[in-house]
């Protein structure tokens, strides 16, 4: 048994689709989510930069004591999965292989499509994932602007429909019968994608399959949290505007996402001079509050001096949300100081 949280990382709000699936399958487990919204989207960035940003974010999660890492970002999975598994002493679950496995099982004709960011498609991660499947042909298309629409909270409209028709035309021409949504932002666009592709095409999201993999890893490692304990506390960090993350993120996750704590990698914190930190450090990465946020200083980093782990700010509120029709209370940490909430 382990009371430690599951760490979930994405470049933005898209990974909350994976978090939602994990909460549905593992309602007794606490989550610690890190959305690197200040640098979203990852897709157009060079692979080396994606790797650096992703490892910085995961360093923060590991420093906070997570028992398992979920890379809920296709671009980051393609860029640094091997590095992450070598770097950390906790299991690492990713999103590419679960989605590819499901698509291979679902296709009737052997013609499978995948859409994703430029970096994901260029990496050929999905090509490698389905390479061993006999009689499967993969058609890959990058759809970079989809992420921008989702991050703005726009999931319908004439402009989006026209863009989807242009992006998806090669997949229609290839007559695919199964389409992998190769970005965790894309499930919020299933309405427009399904409209363009037609009802005969099966849309495969990695969220449910990744949650199943998470369940299996916890089971094999004996890492489940005791279900007799009180409801878990979920925490959310974002490097960009926490208010925007909260507003858009609730469409993915629902009421469990009460509010968000601003976070910042230590390299950028040093450049901006923001002094306040919360939580321990690892590999030079600190989770930070805005100046004047009232948090205690963090503890030592992996390579440096020792120190006790700083407590979370006393100004955090803890709220309880009743799931619609679920009957069980889900306690959610409101990851913001009173000052941040007022802003």
TrEMBL record:
<comment type="function">
    <text>Provides the (R)-glutamate required for cell wall biosynthesis.</text>
</comment>
<dbReference type="InterPro" id="IPR018187">
    <property type="entry name" value="Asp/Glu_racemase_AS_1"/>
</dbReference>
<feature type="binding site">
    <location>
        <begin position="184"/>
        <end position="185"/>
    </location>
    <ligand>
        <name>substrate</name>
    </ligand>
</feature>
<dbReference type="InterPro" id="IPR004391">
    <property type="entry name" value="Glu_race"/>
</dbReference>
<feature type="region of interest" description="Disordered">
    <location>
        <begin position="264"/>
        <end position="314"/>
    </location>
</feature>
<dbReference type="GO" id="GO:0008360">
    <property type="term" value="P:regulation of cell shape"/>
</dbReference>
<feature type="active site" description="Proton donor/acceptor">
    <location>
        <position position="183"/>
    </location>
</feature>
<keyword id="KW-0573">Peptidoglycan synthesis</keyword>
<keyword id="KW-0961">Cell wall biogenesis/degradation</keyword>
<dbReference type="InterPro" id="IPR001920">
    <property type="entry name" value="Asp/Glu_race"/>
</dbReference>
<comment type="pathway">
    <text>Cell wall biogenesis; peptidoglycan biosynthesis.</text>
</comment>
<dbReference type="InterPro" id="IPR015942">
    <property type="entry name" value="Asp/Glu/hydantoin_racemase"/>
</dbReference>
<feature type="compositionally biased region" description="Low complexity">
    <location>
        <begin position="297"/>
        <end position="308"/>
    </location>
</feature>
<feature type="active site" description="Proton donor/acceptor">
    <location>
        <position position="73"/>
    </location>
</feature>
<keyword id="KW-0413">Isomerase</keyword>
<protein>
    <recommendedName>
        <fullName>Glutamate racemase</fullName>
        <ecNumber>5.1.1.3</ecNumber>
    </recommendedName>
</protein>
<feature type="binding site">
    <location>
        <begin position="74"/>
        <end position="75"/>
    </location>
    <ligand>
        <name>substrate</name>
    </ligand>
</feature>
<dbReference type="InterPro" id="IPR033134">
    <property type="entry name" value="Asp/Glu_racemase_AS_2"/>
</dbReference>
<feature type="binding site">
    <location>
        <begin position="42"/>
        <end position="43"/>
    </location>
    <ligand>
        <name>substrate</name>
    </ligand>
</feature>
<feature type="binding site">
    <location>
        <begin position="10"/>
        <end position="11"/>
    </location>
    <ligand>
        <name>substrate</name>
    </ligand>
</feature>
<comment type="similarity">
    <text>Belongs to the aspartate/glutamate racemases family.</text>
</comment>
<dbReference type="GO" id="GO:0008881">
    <property type="term" value="F:glutamate racemase activity"/>
</dbReference>
<dbReference type="GO" id="GO:0009252">
    <property type="term" value="P:peptidoglycan biosynthetic process"/>
</dbReference>
<dbReference type="Pfam" id="PF01177">
    <property type="entry name" value="Asp_Glu_race"/>
</dbReference>
<keyword id="KW-0133">Cell shape</keyword>
<dbReference type="GO" id="GO:0071555">
    <property type="term" value="P:cell wall organization"/>
</dbReference>
